[in-house]
Every structure is written in structure tokens, then in C-alpha cells.
């Protein structure tokens, strides 16, 4: 047979569109032509495939070979098509039964010796192959990752010879059986280990219960970073579809997709991180830190030290829950439904308002320092809390509710929100806000008057309502009361004081 078709998958953000690798042999001067919008690494596959086929003892056809990666208008990149191209050439030249390629998709980069090398982004391809009803053949190092797509038949090999022997029926490969999913990574510590800080612990509980963004301000050594690290221990475990989405993003980024499965991510980028590193992008767009924090927590320590342009790039993802990266060849979307927790000092020296240390900053320095954070960004942070210094105790014992007890409250509040509106309170849109955050007329007027005195924007008032709805959920109250509104407003005062 002079024509063979092998099924494979491209990588386009979190999507894995189907690609048909068509190999055709014709009479004429020996040549190899590759078409179908391949980028440099794909064009170089011709030489890798030729050497791999010859190293395995097969005959490389001395004919005119045309390889088409269809659809032709879809960009193709990387070495993921090497295995499919090699199998297509072998099938078109009659060295492999073409019928054996039906019902299976192939991914893998070939070494010159014919060995199969692992790839990034195998999990999205595995999910797409499962939806298409085909089996998936991958390098052995990617087998465990592909098996996350439950119900998919996965074949794994470490060499082209093993793949050909399987497809020819000589030495069939057995479907890969996962060794077992690893347990979630243990939380870094219990919130009861934090000395004092009852107000901050309460704010963490509210933030976890409604998935609200949180800004902690205070002098150095008050425990802001320690408090932020305890938040993941309060959040409920991911659902399977959420865990798969998180693992798929980490697979695209080249990090360990199975690490911590199915725990919630906790990302802590340095303040020197660039815009593409934080938001995503690059010449070959990859997910940034905010996408790697999808369904988890993004912790930004020393918030004013980040570039203002980088911080302002967070504004749209905080609202929409996704990152849109536009390129000449198309637009990519990465999910970014993360919970922002930020920490900052109240002034450049860090001791403004501190009871023990005197601030050395001038009013102009303090103003310039705070001006690094834009008003629209601060508006999108629901809870603002100034963390006070606690008296240090070297032999302090656990105090207050532990993480497990608070996590049960958070889970109950989450279940209530899912049953009522299908999402967390922080993600309510305007129609949802009007339906589920109804106020009595007197309470509405009181809130509007308070917002006017505090000079809060309409967006900030909406976020006060969302926090109040969370406070009511934590109490199991069906309606928002004046006490819930008052506490929610307390979490906006950090915008106007030393925090």
C-alpha cells in the first residue's frame, strides 16, 4: 500500500485537536516532503525519523515520500509527531500492516536510535483520545500520566521496535495499568500552630469558605507568610474533573502532572517574575503561574515589589477566570480560576503603625509605596486585613480550632453555595448577586451610606455583599443580616488605615 494514515494529536493550549498524519509513496526521484504548517522542530523530524527507521533495521523507502499533517491550517510544533510519521512511512511501504493503525492514536518523540522520549502535554491528548473512543500509544515515561484519563486504553513502549512488534501482532503490548495514584501532598502545617492572630484566622476561614481574595498587611515578622501557607489546608479536595484540569495544565508546563494529585495547587512566584512568567505567554505560549494556580491559591509575597504592569495584568483573569493570549496564528485560552492571597508591608521600612518599632519613612515615601498598587486591583481583593504583632512565645501550644475543624466549616459552606447557586460566592456574577444576596431595604440603605462614607466603588460594594453572603453561610443563615454586612465592611477598612 502506498498510502497510510496514522492518528495523532496537536497541542493548542489545553486543547488537543486531532491530526491525521498521511504518508504517501510515489515513483520519482527520492525525496521527502513534509507539509501541513509544521514549525522548525516538526520539519526536523524528517531526519530523526530516517535515522530511527534505519537504526531499527527497517528499510527507508528510496522513493518520493510526501507527508501531510492534516488539517493543513493547524500549527504543528514539537517532536510529538515523530512516532506517527515513522509508523506512516513503514505502513505505506508495506513493512507494517496499515489496518493495525486503526483505532489507535500515537504520540512520541524519536531518538536517532529509535528510542521513545517523553513529551509535555500528554494528558490533554489522552482526554481527547478517550472522547474519540481510540486507544493511545505513548512513551513509557508518559504512561502513568495518560492513565489519569480513566477508561482510556493506554499502550506504552520505550522503543520503535516494540511499537512495530505490537502493531504487527508479533509481541503485543499489554494495556498499561497505573501503579496507583499518589496521595495528596500533606498540608504544610496546622493553623492552630499559629500563635494568636484570631482576626487573621477568622479572615482565612472567610476567604476559604467563599473563595475570596485576601490581602494581608503588617510589619515584618507578624506571620503573614505563615498564615497564607495554612490556607490550602482549609480548602476542600478537588473534584475529579477539577483535578484532571489542574494536572493537564501542569502537564503542558512540563512539571510533574501527578505531583500532589489531587491536592489544590499553592504557587508562590518571586516578585521578580516577568509578565509572561506570571500570566503566561512567550513565543510558544505556555501557562503562567496564575494558570498553574488554577483551582488553588496564588500567593504573592511583598506585593508592591512586583512590577505594576505585571500586577495590573492580573485584573482581567481575576474577573473572568481565564487568560487569553493572542498571537498572529490564533488565540489561546488557559484557565486561571485562582484564589489570590497577597502580603505586603504598610510602608517601605515595614513598621508604620507598629507598637514596638518606629517608622523611618516620610509621608511621601509611604504614598509612593502604596501607589504601586492600582485602585482597580485593590478593588478586586475582597478582604483587606492588617496583621498585628503578637507577643512571641517559644513554647507556645496549639490554640484555637485546628485546620481539620475549620475545613469542615468550609466544606459545609461550599456545599451550601453549590446547592444554591452552583459556584462559590466570590464567583457570583451580577444577576447571581441580585438573586442570592438580597437585602432588607433598611440594610441596603445602611450599606450604601457606609460605602459613601468609606468612598467605596460599586465593585467594592458588590464584593462586600459577597463576603457578607459567605459570613451568613458560615452561620447557616438563610439571609444576610446587618451583623454580616458590618463584619464584611471591616475587611475593607484595611484600604484606609495602616494596612
TrEMBL record:
<dbReference type="InterPro" id="IPR045006">
    <property type="entry name" value="CHLI-like"/>
</dbReference>
<dbReference type="GO" id="GO:0005524">
    <property type="term" value="F:ATP binding"/>
</dbReference>
<feature type="domain" description="AAA+ ATPase">
    <location>
        <begin position="210"/>
        <end position="391"/>
    </location>
</feature>
<keyword id="KW-0547">Nucleotide-binding</keyword>
<dbReference type="InterPro" id="IPR014721">
    <property type="entry name" value="Ribsml_uS5_D2-typ_fold_subgr"/>
</dbReference>
<keyword id="KW-0067">ATP-binding</keyword>
<dbReference type="InterPro" id="IPR025158">
    <property type="entry name" value="Mg_chelat-rel_C"/>
</dbReference>
<dbReference type="InterPro" id="IPR000523">
    <property type="entry name" value="Mg_chelatse_chII-like_cat_dom"/>
</dbReference>
<dbReference type="Pfam" id="PF13335">
    <property type="entry name" value="Mg_chelatase_C"/>
</dbReference>
<dbReference type="InterPro" id="IPR001208">
    <property type="entry name" value="MCM_dom"/>
</dbReference>
<dbReference type="InterPro" id="IPR004482">
    <property type="entry name" value="Mg_chelat-rel"/>
</dbReference>
<dbReference type="Pfam" id="PF13541">
    <property type="entry name" value="ChlI"/>
</dbReference>
<dbReference type="InterPro" id="IPR027417">
    <property type="entry name" value="P-loop_NTPase"/>
</dbReference>
<comment type="similarity">
    <text>Belongs to the Mg-chelatase subunits D/I family. ComM subfamily.</text>
</comment>
<dbReference type="InterPro" id="IPR020568">
    <property type="entry name" value="Ribosomal_Su5_D2-typ_SF"/>
</dbReference>
<dbReference type="Pfam" id="PF01078">
    <property type="entry name" value="Mg_chelatase"/>
</dbReference>
<dbReference type="InterPro" id="IPR003593">
    <property type="entry name" value="AAA+_ATPase"/>
</dbReference>
<protein>
    <submittedName>
        <fullName>Magnesium chelatase family protein</fullName>
    </submittedName>
</protein>
<dbReference type="GO" id="GO:0003677">
    <property type="term" value="F:DNA binding"/>
</dbReference>
Amino acid at each position: 500500500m502506498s498510502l497510510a494514515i496514522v492518528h495523532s494529536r496537536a497541542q493548542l493550549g489545553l486543547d488537543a485537536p486531532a491530526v491525521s498524519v498521511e504518508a504517501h509513496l510515489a515513483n520519482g526521484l527520492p525525496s521527502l516532503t513534509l507539509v501541513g504548517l509544521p514549525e522548525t522542530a516538526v520539519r526536523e523530524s524528517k531526519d530523526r525519523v530516517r535515522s530511527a527507521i534505519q537504526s531499527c533495521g527497517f528499510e527507508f523507502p528510496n522513493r518520493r515520500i510526501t507527508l501531510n499533517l492534516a488539517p493543513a491550517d493547524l500549527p504543528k510544533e514539537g517532536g510529538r509527531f515523530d512516532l506517527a510519521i515513522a509508523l506512516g512511512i513503514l505502513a505505506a511501504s508495506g513493512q507494517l500492516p496499515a489496518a493495525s493503525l486503526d483505532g489507535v492514536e500515537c504520540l512520541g518523540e524519536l531518538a536517532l536510535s529509535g528510542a521513545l522520549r517523553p513529551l509535555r502535554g500528554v494528558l490533554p491528548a489522552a482526554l481527547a483520545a478517550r472522547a474519540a473512543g481510540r486507544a493511545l500509544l505513548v512513551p513509557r515515561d508518559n504512561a502513568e500520566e495518560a492513565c489519569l484519563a480513566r477508561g482510556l486504553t493506554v499502550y506504552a513502549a520505550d522503543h520503535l521496535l516494540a511499537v512495530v512488534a505490537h502493531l504487527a501482532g508479533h509481541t503485543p503490548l499489554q494495556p498499561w495499568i497505573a501503579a496507583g495514584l499518589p496521595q495528596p501532598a500533606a498540608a504544610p502545617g496546622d493553623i492552630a500552630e499559629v500563635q494568636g492572630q484570631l482576626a487573621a484566622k477568622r479572615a482565612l476561614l472567610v476567604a476559604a469558605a467563599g473563595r475570596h481574595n485576601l490581602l494581608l498587611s503588617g510589619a515584618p515578622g507578624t506571620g503573614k507568610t505563615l498564615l497564607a501557607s495554612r490556607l490550602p489546608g482549609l480548602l476542600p479536595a478537588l473534584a475529579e474533573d477539577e483535578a484532571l484540569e489542574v494536572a493537564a495544565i501542569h502537564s503542558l508546563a512540563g512539571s510533574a502532572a501527578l505531583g500532589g494529585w489531587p491536592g489544590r495547587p499553592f504557587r508562590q512566584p518571586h516578585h521578580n517574575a516577568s509578565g509572561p512568567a506570571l500570566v503566561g505567554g512567550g513565543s510558544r505560549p505556555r501557562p503562567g503561574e496564575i494558570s498553574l494556580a488554577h483551582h488553588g491559591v496564588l500567593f504573592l509575597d511583598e506585593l508592591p515589589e512586583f512590577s505594576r504592569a505585571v500586577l495590573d495584568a492580573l485584573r482581567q483573569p481575576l474577573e473572568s477566570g481565564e487568560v487569553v493570549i493572542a498571537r498572529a496564528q490564533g488565540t489561546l485560552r488557559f484557565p486561571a480560576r485562582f484564589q489570590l492571597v497577597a502580603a505586603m508591608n504598610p510602608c517601605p521600612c515595614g513598621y508604620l503603625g507598629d507598637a514596638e518599632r518606629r517608622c523611618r519613612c516620610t509621608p511621601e515615601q509611604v504614598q509612593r509605596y502604596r501607589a504601586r498598587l492600582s485602585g482597580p486591583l485593590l478593588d478586586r481583593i475582597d478582604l483587606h486585613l492588617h496583621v498585628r504583632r503578637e507577643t512571641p512565645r517559644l513554647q507556645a501550644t496549639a490554640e484555637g480550632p485546628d485546620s481539620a475543624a475549620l475545613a469542615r466549616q468550609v466544606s459545609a459552606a461550599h456545599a451550601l453555595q453549590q446547592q444554591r447557586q452552583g459556584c462559590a460566592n466570590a464567583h457570583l456574577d451580577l444577576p447571581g448577586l441580585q438573586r442570592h444576596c438580597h437585602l432588607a431595604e433598611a440594610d441596603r440603605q445602611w450599606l450604601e451610606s457606609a460605602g459613601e462614607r468609606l468612598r467605596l466603588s460599586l465593585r467594592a460594594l458588590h464584593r462586600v455583599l459577597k463576603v457578607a453572603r459567605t459570613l451568613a453561610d458560615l452561620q447557616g443563615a438563610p439571609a444576610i443580616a446587618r451583623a454580616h454586612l458590618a463584619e464584611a465592611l471591616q475587611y475593607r477598612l484595611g484600604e484606609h488605615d495602616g494596612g
